[in-house]
Amino acid sequence: GHGRTIAILAEYDALPEIGHACGHNIIATAGVGAFLAIHALYEKDPAAVPGTVVLLGTPAEEGHSGKEVMARAGAFDGIDAAIMVHGYGYDCADQVWLGRRLLTVTYSGVAAHASAQPFMGRNALDAANLFYQGLGLMRQQMPPISRLHAVITDGGTRPSIITESATVQCYVRSKFPETLKELSDRVEDAAKGAALMTGTGVTVDWDEHPPSLPVRTNSPLTARWAEHEQTRGRQPLPAGVLDESIAASTDFGNVSYRIPGIHPLIKTADAEVALHTREFAAAAKTPAAESAALDGAYGLACTALDFLADDALAAAVTDEFARDGGAIDVEHFFD
Questions:
Q1: Does residue 282 have a pLDDT over 90?
Q2: pTM score of the predicted model
Q3: Domain locations in the chain?
Q4: Is 313 left (phi over 0), alpha (psi -120 to 50) or beta?
């Protein structure tokens, strides 16, 4: 159609071994349901849909930033806003989502007999250990909402051999793009400092897959979502009610810094059931999950139609996006 264009996003990937422990089956069902409802309305009365609605299936959200790959290929070109809904333990209109980067650090040492000639070696595992400990100490002097968590994926082969190669993978997360960039620089400095302290070589590789930015939530769209969910008997919590420290990451953040968007949460499981657990995977195929998908579809469809039909709402959405800084160069932000 003519007029504005809004995208409804449908994630559908699952987690290895534990399935839909992030509820992407609910996301996809709600997104497809909203699109089909709008399409049925259009067939009955084309004038009731004064614009264009695009359904975008978005794969590889878990750790691979599929939406960023799609954006770089032009999937969001010509789209004025994007909306989706995510299952959770609460109904929440606006919750913090952190930006996230992946750092892989590989230390190169010198192998030697750990008993007969340890002084001839340079221990790559020592460097990895110092870096890991440095991350722990760094947490004292970083924003409380930021997160650092790491794992040593390669730490040597035998106790009798000074470790020649060691690898650490680290997630760096923060609430704002600017603080994520600054924290990334500090983490890289720590990685290189550990190499200096141990006399080892080091290679630093960022972002095997594209990084995720924090979610920038659009308030006018969020308010409409909340109004529509209330008609379904839900009471979405506003921003600030849930502790912002309960925060993960999503590649929808990359979309939200290109165009206005919302990523509300809908109650699918009991509050104590965490995402990325077998318990949440079980909850994602219950009657409560079916209700969440149906209510989510209703909210997405109504919010999309509001954006297309309500000029005042669309203007408010656009104005807030501009006040918040407008579109940024997501692809090259960390260059």
A1: yes
A2: 0.93
A3: 5-97+215-323, 100-206
A4: alpha
